[in-house]
Design a protein that fits this description.
The chain has 193 residues and is mostly beta strands. It is 13% helix and 45% strand. The protein has one helix and nine strands, in the order αβββββββββ. A hairpin with a 6-residue loop joins strand 7 and strand 8. InterPro entries: Allene_oxi_cyc_Dirigent (IPR044859), Dirigent (IPR004265).
Length: 193
């Protein structure tokens, strides 16, 4: 009988500890937890190549890039250091302005170098065409404008580009020195699920 009573006490104690443990962990505010790729809907990783043209229009009645900040007159440099522009530039299949629209480049670029034309690019490519309609790719990097080809990192994305990583290669197609308008060819290589 004593053995039976001790077994019941031990069983009740273990059940109470187990219940307390469950209640304590159930109400805790976890900072992080591990997830499986499958639970996030992630299948096999793919590498995609996107090719389009970026139209940066700073002149005329309907500019797609507008100056939002400029360095004080006493701090002017020959490179335009401190200049910042907000953009909503069309992305098209071809270099012509009336070419098929595939998305918009939306964000900010800023002249971040005292010694050369080096832009800090913070922007999203927001796609409006085909299977990528509604998806975005995010760029955060340096654009050395005077280099023939510039490489900038893809740091993320949304929609079909969730968990994206890769790089974008930019090459100036045309630049009008009078107006400042430019068409830039982009080749984007991105890993995504």
């Amino acid at each position: 009988m004593a053995k039976s009573c001790n077994f019941q006490k031990l069983s009740i104690t273990i059940l109470l500890l187990l219940l307390l443990s469950i209640l304590t962990h159930g109400n805790s505010q976890e900072f992080s937890r591990k997830l499986s790729k499958k639970s996030m809907g992630m299948k096999r990783e793919k590498l995609s190549h996107l090719h389009f043209y970026f139209h940066d229009i700073v002149s005329g009645k309907n500019p797609t890039a507008v100056k939002i900040a400029e360095a004080a007159m006493t701090n002017r440099s020959s490179t335009g250091f401190g200049l910042m522009a907000m953009i909503d530039d069309p992305l098209t299949v071809g270099p012509e302005p009336n070419s098929k629209l595939v998305g918009r480049a939306q964000g900010i670029y800023a002249q971040a170098s005292l010694n050369d034309v080096g832009l800090l690019m913070v922007l999203n490519f927001a796609f409006v065409e085909g299977k990528y309609n509604g998806s975005t790719l995010s760029i955060l990097g340096r654009n050395s404008v005077m280099s023939t080809v510039r490489e900038m990192p893809i740091v993320g994305g949304s929609g079909l580009f969730r968990f994206a990583r890769g790089y974008a290669k930019a090459k100036t197609h045309t630049l009008d020195f009078k107006t400042g308008d430019a068409v830039v060819e982009y080749n984007v290589y991105v890993f995504h699920y």
